[in-house]
């Protein structure tokens, strides 16, 4: 099981057809950006958006940010062309919508056969059908490009006919299952968007909930949301201090061969050592940004 090796605290979407937003993304502090061809793009702009996404990836200039293209589903008039264009452009990730089964993921993986090896498959978790199949889907990480689950709470609310309200009660079991399936198979798990662009308090509360559930980061739809997501998903000063003391304790000669130690009056085991190393690795990368 591979823990996430880089920060993915904020994943900022923008319509790929919005040149101003794409250009602005090169200077925003988002850890990842998603050039959207799907829901944020109207049907008559699909071809233009596809060309713009490919051009943006080729042009680069995104620095440490991961660059992801979100394609339309293969059962739409645009899906096959989107996947072919994304495979040729070779971004860090290709995000695909509305998967319902492991077979769907295999089909997207096959459509990306010609993409560079470092192009990973990210999938939206946003249908009712996929919910009981999350672990089977996540298991494909071992044999495909699949690397990341992204919660699609807006589509999920629509399909369930549930209300997406503060606290997100109807979705909590699905958030738990998504994170658990991701962790079981070493995937990254990104939480869904908060639609209220300028309600910083609501976003902060929802991001804190995502942290509590174990997500690696949160989807964002506006520059104003990025710093709030980054702050929520960065290890706190206390967590970093704890991690350092755990790593220091396990590094002492008298810790050699031991599986459990006492640190600051509490038991820590090798699992905490691994957790502490992960926190320090992520914190060091955040420090460098
Ligand atoms: N990414 C990058 N830049 C963005 C952005 C985004 N998602 N949203 C807005 N901006 C930029 C604007 O271009 C503008 O730049 P400027 O100051 O250089 O002119 C600035 O941020 C302020 O934008 P603002 O006027 O507050 O937003 P808006 O009213 O023009 O747009 C939305 C609001 C919701 C339409 C827009 O934020 C958006 O398209 N978000 C992404 C939607 C999306 O991708 N959804 C799919 C996933 S759920
Ligand atoms: Mg969706």
Explain this structure.
- By secondary structure, the protein is α/β, with parallel strands linked by helices.
- It is 44% helix and 17% strand.
- The chain has helices at residues 19-25, 46-59, 79-89, 102-111, 134-138, 153-160, 172-184, 200-213, 223-233, 237-251, 270-287, and strands at residues 10-15, 32-36, 66-70, 93-96, 120-125, 146-151, 188-191, 217-220, 260-263, 266-269.
- The strands form two sheets. Strands 1-2-3-4-5-6-7-8 form an eight-stranded parallel β-barrel, surrounded by seven helices. A two-stranded antiparallel ribbon has the order 9-10.
- Coenzyme A (COA) is lined by residues 12-15, 20-21, 24-25, 36, 39-40, 193, 221-223.
- Mg(2+) binds at residues 126, 155.
Contiguous low-pLDDT stretches (5 residues minimum) are none
CATH topology group of the largest domain: TIM Barrel
What's the helix-strand series?
EHEHEHEHEHEHHEHEHHEEH
The residue fraction in helices comes out at: 40-55%
User: How many β-strand runs?
Assistant: 10
Q: What is the CATH first-level class name of the largest domain?
A: Alpha Beta
Radius of gyration: 19 Å
List all distinct small molecules, including ions and cofactors, that are bound in this structure: coenzyme A, magnesium ion
Label the overall shape. globular
The chain-level mean pLDDT equals 96
| Sheet with most strands: strand arrangement | 1-2-3-4-5-6-7-8
The first-to-last residue Cα distance is 26 Å
Number of helices in the DSSP assignment: 11
Share of β-strand residues: 15-25%
Q: What is the CATH architecture assignment of the largest domain?
A: Alpha-Beta Barrel
Biggest sheet overview: 8 strands, parallel, barrel
Number of self-contained structural domains: 2
CATH homology superfamily of the largest domain: Phosphoenolpyruvate-binding domains
The helix-and-strand class reads alpha/beta
Query: From the structure provided, what is the oligomeric state, counting identical versus distinct chains?
Result: single chain
Binding site for substrate: 70, 126
InterPro entries: Aldolase/citrate-lyase_domain (IPR005000), Citrate_lyase_beta/mcl1/mcl2 (IPR011206), Pyrv/PenolPyrv_kinase-like_dom (IPR015813), Pyrv_kinase-like_dom_sf (IPR040442)
Binding site for Mg(2+): 126, 155
Protein name: Citrate lyase subunit beta/citryl-CoA lyase
